[in-house]
Amino acid sequence: MSRVPDGFVRTHPEIADAIASGRPVVGLETAVLTHGLSRSGRTAPNCLRPDGEVAGMLGGEIDWDDDAPLNLQAVRLVSRAVRHAGAVPAIIGMVDGVLRIGLDDDELAALALDESASKVSNRDFAAISVAGGSAGTTVAASMHACRLASPAPIRVFATGGIGGVHRGWTERPDISADLRALASEPVVVVASGAKVILDLPATLEMLDTLGVPVIGYRTDALPIFTVGTSEDLRVPHRLDTVDSVAETCRRHWDGFAQSSGILVANPCPAEDAIDPHRMDVLVDAGLAEAAAQGIDGSGVTPFLLGSMITDADIDPVSANLALLVSNAALAGGIAGAWPADRSG
């Protein structure tokens, strides 16, 4: 494919060097930084307890600052999980009209604190670039950015959960661009399934219609973001090792000349997952309140998260951070297991 001029897209030197030398690289999105998590401080989420599964994925003592922005600390931990798994994190975002594949810590902090930053999908790149704006990248935008990396594309990407078919789609056909990206961008996406606010059976069916392979990592059921899995939603394939996932990706693209992405569905760590029945009640109530206030589109997810934080029985932020770290660690493992003859 033709490359975008360097003035519009910049690959960080560390990322470019890693790609050139064949070291594993994992793409990371920033919509969670600009729109998914609060810019306020909070006490350390329960998932970071020293004896927990998440702490093991981070490889050591966690220096959490209760007063520092939650969104910034979360993305730094996700990046740390990738490094602990043996890969190089490429945090993707738009800064001053330039799509940056790899942000340094100062750029990341500036984007985290920028309340004027927008949320960019792949359709928005040109307009945001001309306006000189800054933005967090969605799954769809980040997947396309992975293809624009220099000197070769990034093949592995981690996120929290993908977008999909929204509830009530028969009356209002609201379908995320993430699904089209999965159908057309040759990137393996590690995610905890689809976000809980979606029509999950319709989302799984749409992935099948689009020809996107869905692989359950050590699960036969589709993960539902922060609530674990649903036995009613079966995935077509299950794999239990990073080596088998990496080899499946290689054969999909190189052996059978497929062009779609691959979704690796990784459940939220069980010890941090939210009870599904309680979540159903909260989501239904939150969606009703959002509709009553005229909140829709990209504003729904942060509204729901904010409304759930006040519930004493659950900690959605902790569950969200747990799955983000888990997915990043798994993506790092897959990238590291990529066969030596991998193509760019």
Furnish the topology, listing elements before pairings.
Layout: E1 9-11, H1 13-20, E2 25-28, H2 31-36, H3 53-58, H4 70-84, E3 88-95, E4 98-101, H5 105-113, E5 118-120, H6 125-131, E6 135-137, H7 139-148, E7 156-158, H8 177-184, E8 188-191, H9 200-209, E9 214-217, E10 221-223, E11 229-234, E12 237-239, H10 242-255, E13 262-265, H11 276-292, H12 300-309, H13 316-337
Parallel strand pairs: 1-4, 2-3, 2-7, 5-6, 7-8, 8-13, 9-12, 9-13
Antiparallel strand pairs: 3-4, 3-6, 10-11
Helix pairs in contact: 4-13, 7-8, 10-13, 11-12
Write a concise synopsis of the structure shown.
The protein has 344 residues and is α/β, with parallel strands linked by helices. 41% of the residues lie in helices and 15% in strands. 48% of the residues are buried.
